[in-house]
Amino acid sequence: MKASSRPGDRPDRSRRLRPVDTPDDELVVAELYRTYHRPLLSFVVRLTRGDVQWAEDVVQETMVRAWRSADRFDADASSLMPWLATVARHIVIDDQRRKDARPHEAGEGPLESVPMPDQMEDLLRQVVVSDALDSLSPAHREILNETVLRDRSVNDAAEALGIPVGTVKSRAYYALRALRVALEERGVTA
């Protein structure tokens, strides 16, 4: 460890950083933070356009990276500030790229003013169709249920109902005609 050249100055223990294993190592980390926190924070606040919370996070991450990379520092360097500033700048750039890659959050405000479609018309249509279906004969309801609502082919409907394919075709034809008449009676037109 080198002593500072000016009398009364504290030695720069941050040059010999390594993983914190002993109380002496904690002093080194504390000295690094004490020496460089304020100037680094001022620099990073400008990089983050005044976002102090983000700047604090960047400084914290920079200090962690400095602590982890302590064995690579130049022992003859007069200050770690240039290296710390470069690391902090890269962290800010990476954070900004991550934010730009994600879509912006919408928040609650704009969603409150989005018009919602009126569901009343759909509900009314369902009631009318249901009422028209109820007015059909059980055989017609059954054939429409199998062919239209369950989306079965004529062959599958015939097998499910246990009736011939020709009967399914004719019942489906007459059931649809009866349903059309029932809907027209209720004011529904094509």
From TrEMBL:
Q: Where is the composition biased (Basic and acidic residues)?
A: 7-20, 96-107
- Region of interest called Disordered, as start-end residue ranges on this chain: 1-20, 96-116
Top-level taxon of origin: Bacteria
TM ranges: none
Which regions form coiled coils?
A: none
Q: Which Pfam families match?
A: Sigma70_r2, Sigma70_r4
- What protein family is recorded? Belongs to the sigma-70 factor family. ECF subfamily.
What name does UniProt use for this protein? Answer: RNA polymerase sigma factor
What phylogenetic lineage does the species belong to? Bacteria, Bacillati, Actinomycetota, Actinomycetes, Streptosporangiales
